[in-house]
Protein: AA9 family lytic polysaccharide monooxygenase
Organism: Morchella conica CCBAS932
Amino acid sequence: MVSSLKALSKFAAYCALLSFVSAHQNLHEFYVNGVTVGYEKCMRRPPSNNPVTDVQSTDIRCNVNGLSASGTNPVPEVCAVNAGDEITVIWDTSSHPGPIQHFLYGPISDALTADGSGAKWSKIDVLNVQDGKMANVIMMENGGKYTFKLPENLTSGEYLLRSEMLALHGAGVIGGGQFYIGCMQLKITGPGGDCSPKFSLPGIYDASQPEIYIPDVYNGFNTLTYTAPGGPVATCTAGSGSGSTPASTTVSASTTRMTTAASSSITPSSTTATSAAASATSAVVAKYGQCGGAGFTGSTNCASGMSVV
Ligand SMILES: [Cu+2]
């Protein structure tokens, strides 16, 4: 009871700051196994740091103008990572109370053009409360950083990695929950596998569900027992990735990106001979390869540890 009240008073204190602190937030950078990919690299960038509040809008996928990499601030880069890698996202620090969670969309053939449609999303990570602090507070104390791991059991291919911070300070009214969203564009090399359940966005959120609409948010809401919307974290199992397999994706089909000279290829464990594309193994881009690519006019000076494909 005491800790609950304490949390509530903290919650109120944070909210009181909102009147004079600009606390909107954006995702700006991510690290892979402790190495940055570079500022605002390999991610879709919205036109502002405003939240998405309509959970039935396609903006809920990858923020405003986020249905491809060529939105408001085009970023034609895909970063190569491995299944099981440690990802650290860096958000603007925010006093908005709420959780952070991560979702994977894929595998898909092209992370630059994928619009996030269809039931290919899985929740892979969530942090609600730890040691009596909501996720945003933990991140404030850590410079906006938050670290989690990609699933070990993933089929090779391209993916969108969606980072979501839900701010609850306005959740006392329907439509007042604020979704801050950033989508990263990844090419994941993995041993095979698939995550379940999968769902569509929009599709899993309802504006009136108790994790988003909290009538007592300033009058009894217990942050310590809060859980983010979207259900539990997916289970990702090895082997047969039903449905899409990398056999149907051909990275080389794109002329807008650079591939390295890596000659290794992937044999999807779940591919059957019935797929006409099964022989078209995806070119694997060396993890520590080059940055940039045709059509990419930005800096090609990427940090070691990452490649842009
Ligand atoms: Cu804000």
